[in-house]
Design goal:
Number of strands: 14
Structural class: alpha/beta
Order of helices and strands: EEEHEHEEEHEHEHEHEEEHHEHH
Number of helices: 10
Oligomer: single chain
Largest sheet: 8 strands, parallel, barrel
Shape: globular
Distance between the termini: 38 Å
Helix content: 25-40%
Strand order of the largest sheet: 3-4-5-8-9-10-11-14
Length: 316
């Protein structure tokens, strides 16, 4: 049996996540098609490398990510892994259907996403996710991107998740976003277990450290960090690389190249430092690594084993 990576507890919940989490957006065909075989091989390689936490969402490929994850985990012992999915977008038939999804995923546009942060929407979303995953429960449920639906998310979605947690339907609840401000409000005003922050606690953008991370540490809320490469620039800095899903400006490319040269002086690849950096904060429980095949997740796992001297962090 493959030994799992070290685990960290989410808040005061019974959920323990591995310090690396498999991020499921890429196997939902984010930006490009991924074969079923490659997606399965990526999940299998994550398992073989000790990853036992898997994050997905209905948004990712209009349910494709959840379906692929469910198939790959079907033969695994259910008490050995943790699945996180999200609420806030219901998938409904498109009328008329489109040839292609319009939100960045290389899948047919036969479904549309409808934002719904109501209590009923939360329950319906989870029920549909369980069906796609082929599971009787998920471990973590996150309110997904409620940027333009803040008050409904606090007034309706959060209480619904809190009730589902009290009923034992889910074990840990929280919110996942690309911005730190609203997540800080969730930490301060609710009884969530975890927040997932994407792209705001990286070697190039540490804005989550201003208020979110201190508030989380104070309140005993765990943080999962995604987007550690800022969508590409910190994985392979070069002109034309992407930063937060758009072409990076020259000033940021220059900064990333400087970081890369500093890392090179210590014999450490920049992508290894970028993935390890968030785990140095006591509030951070796990780092999400998105992968579309075995090679990509295998690289992340191998980077984890590198010895990174403390002096490199000072230099960075």
């Amino acid at each position: 049996m493959t030994e799992a990576l070290p685990r960290r507890r989410l808040g005061s919940s019974p959920v323990y996540v591995t310090e690396l989490t498999f991020g499921g957006a890429a196997i939902g065909n984010l930006y490009m098609p991924v074969t079923d075989a490659d997606a399965r091989a990526g999940i299998d390689a994550a398992w073989d490398g000790g990853i036992r936490t898997f994050d997905t969402a209905p948004h990712y490929g209009l349910g494709l990510s959840e379906r692929r994850l469910g198939v790959a985990l079907a033969s695994r012992p259910r008490d050995e892994y943790v699945v996180s999915t999200k609420v806030g977008r219901l998938l409904e038939p498109a009328d008329p259907p489109l040839d292609q999804d319009t939100e960045g995923f290389a899948v047919p546009g036969d479904l549309v996403r409808r934002y719904d942060y109501s209590a009923d929407g939360v329950r319906r979303s989870l029920e549909a996710s369980l069906e796609r995953l082929g599971l009787d429960h998920v471990d973590i449920a996150l309110i997904h991107d409620p940027d333009d639906h803040e008050e409904q998310a606090f007034r309706e979605a959060y209480p619904a998740l809190e009730k589902l947690r009290s009923e034992g339907v889910v074990q840990a609840i929280g919110a996942g976003m690309n911005q730190a401000e609203m997540l800080t409000r969730f930490v301060r005003e609710t009884d969530i277990d975890v927040v997932l922050i994407a792209g705001r606690y990286t070697l190039l953008d540490k804005s989550a450290a201003d208020e979110l991370l201190p508030a989380a540490a104070e309140r005993g809320v765990s943080v999962m960090v995604g987007g550690v490469f800022n969508s590409g620039l910190l994985a392979a800095p070069a002109p034309g690389a992407t930063y937060d899903y758009t072409v990076a400006p020259d000033s940021l490319v220059s900064r990333a190249l400087t970081l890369e040269s500093v890392c090179a002086e210590y014999g450490v690849p920049l992508r290894a430092a970028a993935a390890r950096f968030p785990l140095g904060h006591p509030a951070v429980a796990s780092v999400l690594i998105g992968a579309r095949n075995a090679a990509e997740i295998g690289d992340a796992i191998s980077m984890r084993s590198l010895d990174i001297p403390a002096t490199l962090w000072d230099a960075l």
